[in-house]
Design brief:
Structural class: alpha+beta
Radius of gyration: 23 Å
Helix content: 25-40%
Strand order of the largest sheet: 3-2-6-5-4-7-8
Number of strands: 21
Oligomer: single chain
Distance between the termini: 35 Å
Length: 568
Amino acid sequence: MSFQDSNTPLLHHSIAHSSRDGVGYCLTPKLAALSNTPGFNVKVNPILLEVFKNRFSSIAEEMGVTLNRTGFSPNIKERRDFSCAVFDQRGDTIAQAAHIPVHLGSMPMSVRSAIESVSWEEGDMVILNDPFKGGTHLPDITVVAPVFAGKKTPSFYVANRAHHADVGGMSSGSMPLSTTIFQEGIIIPPLKIVEKGSINLALMSFFLNNVRTPVEREGDFAAQFMGNTTGVRRTQELIQKYTLETVEFYARSLMAYAERVTRHAIKEIPDGVYDFEDSMDNDGFSEDRVGIHVSVTIDGDQALLNFGQSSPQVRGSINAVYAITLSAVLYVFRALVERDIPTNAGVLRPITVLTQEGSIVDAQFPAAVAGGNVETSQRIVDVVLGALSQALPKKIPAASQGTMNNVTIGGIDPRNGRPFAYYETIGGGMGATARGDGESGVHSHMTNTLNTPIEALEYSYPFLVTEYSIRRSTGGEGLHQGGDGIVREIQLHSEAEITILSERRKLPPYGLGGGGPGAVGRNVIIRGGERMEKPGKFSASLQKNDIVRIETPGGGGYGKKGASRQRA
């Protein structure tokens, strides 16, 4: 079949410029002109290809190290809730660090929005967080910087995205039970935050006057600027060593290489149409389940994913913009590739994604989207993996916990009289596989952060951690057991407000191959010894000495329990 001949009314997003040239003849204009010279033949040197793969990746990694070590908030310093990447002049990803999938897959759309919105000069940086311009949710703020190399326009870009623990809005932590994006915080279109090396103090002052923790935010912005400065410097050093034409050539060659290997991986999936559906527990305002459906069509070395039968966008904040859906698809197919290829724009070239505008997986302005990035992204992964499990039963794992268990707590710290805003996501159980049990107490799929260590948490906030443990026997049963969840229990030393956005409190993570589901999670507030069960999504006022107890889901089991195990 030909995907281009489809008469579907769904929106077809153009993901990337496809290339079937292979890695041997992906030429820059200058090299292409040279190739017309008699006796001149341009081919990829496989050793240099490997060198550039590692050089580009190391630039992104060093950006992350700089951002981490200069970060101000626990969310950046301890949890490493940020991502860094390098892009070509069109905004296509060349390489990324091993950071957070939901950030990285969507970042190219933000970079392109920045490219299209400003006239660039050396030393500029652009800031944005608008989910409808390639962002994810408002706390994730992207900073983009150009790399000039002797031309009037940038030859490359570097960018990082960091989750700020508060960006204003109706509740501390900016992850509210909202019904519109206007309740979630300040919306930033692409604007120059740094001009010719100087910070735009008026814009910075405007932003800091709209958040609860301005000192922390200013410190994290400084870290983002330093991360990009590192990326620009290292990219320019690479150009000085190898010439601009060579660097551009191998950037394109790496994309072509990733495309070729991804096509090979897709070709190993049996041709066919594979459907799967799973649901979100609810949107926080009604008890209705919110369905996400995908139909995956494999045709040779191409894949088409049609989300057209998914539920319409909802009142609550679990709506996902298209950038998030694209991130989830990229994550799954990159995970199918077992070779060590760079994760760049080439991975998406053999993949077509169809969505319905105004649906839960392609929400339209001014939908509430705070939870779509963290919760709905996980369910999109679950349905894509569920569909592919029909074609690759020995390769696809059972469902992992399927939530990030978002906890935001804010108030006034009695130790210093200043506002605080705490944000954390909590790990859980991973799904078991045909090869073995699932891991316990880890972040999975679309998140890749660390936890906040107890010592750092108690130092930074008026909290006492009363329990932090593995939630035993919560993984699904089977030939291979699902991973167990986590118990995180925090006692407050002051009054505060809390918002929790979590999933898998009603519908458990599925098992595969006869394996059982993982246990659902629970949210509890303990006041004076009384336990108050809370729903998956809620906001509440907390009193001094209240205890917040989060019990996260386990992963699904794999295979029928009691069946004989075989070595993988």
